[in-house]
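Morning!

This is the sequence you dropped in the shared folder:
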Amino acid sequence: MTASIRGLRPDDLADAESVVRVLRAALPFSITSAEGLAFELSSAHPAKHHRVLVAEGPDGRVVGAARAGIVYDSPDPGQSYLNTYVDPAHRGLGAGRLLLHAAEEHLAAHGAVDAYSWVLDEPAHRAFAERNGYLPRRSAHRLRLDLATVTLPELPRDEDLPAGVELRPGSAFAADPRPLFEADAEATADEPGDVAVEPSDYEDWLAHIWNDPTLDKELTTVALVDGVVASFAAVQTDGAARYGSAMTGTVRAFRGRGLAKLAKTASLHRARAAGFREAFTGNDAGNDPMLAINEWFGYEICATETRFTKKLETL
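The structure's back. Tokens below.
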């Protein structure tokens, strides 16, 4: 018997919890929650055509899931993302193949030309992608930090910070987060990747990033220089014990001053004080400066993923 495919029930947190269980089993480094997954679906920009597909086994148990949608803020039309996940304890039902084909049909129906998928860099996962017509591109590392035991870099006192530099939590921008949007947009545009992204819609950023329940505004840390947002370490948490680096970036005019290290140091110290015991982050395999920063903190590679791509036939 095989699995059956349906959409995530958007108003059913128990359904979202089942998908979160699959995500954590398939990707132990993932930072997610049922509330975050439901928000991801409900807040997506209409042009994104975002879907979360669910695979059920013969007994009705959720055994797999897929996320798929259009990269609507790319200057190159027809770009899309498609990521499938199957619970390791329930492989062999054909769930991955069915999820992949259903997601491809959804994307093709909305004009997708190229589909990009992150695949664990392990023989079985790579073979699955290649059997289904996907070709490998760039790679990225997932890194883990044991916050319970690591000796973090010392955090300078306020009076010892470089002249004009101050650190603030993301929550300090609750009344006007636009400066964070502008810094995020500039850093994201410069981030290495297969698909160019140029965020320009402030209201959309507010809707699906700033208001995301997994964004921890207290642990998110911002470095200002003479009152101007210069660097930031955005943080996601799962509502339990996992801390994840959502994005660490520095505005072009302030790069090379160690501000990203400073913001991340402050964030990690506050995360440990708040009771978090595991921290995760990701690095493009070619982003040597950021990889060096994370290794300096004590992060160790716990997994590697490869970005695979496939040309889709539009419907």
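Headline: The chain has a mean pLDDT of 93.

More detail when I'm at my desk.
O.
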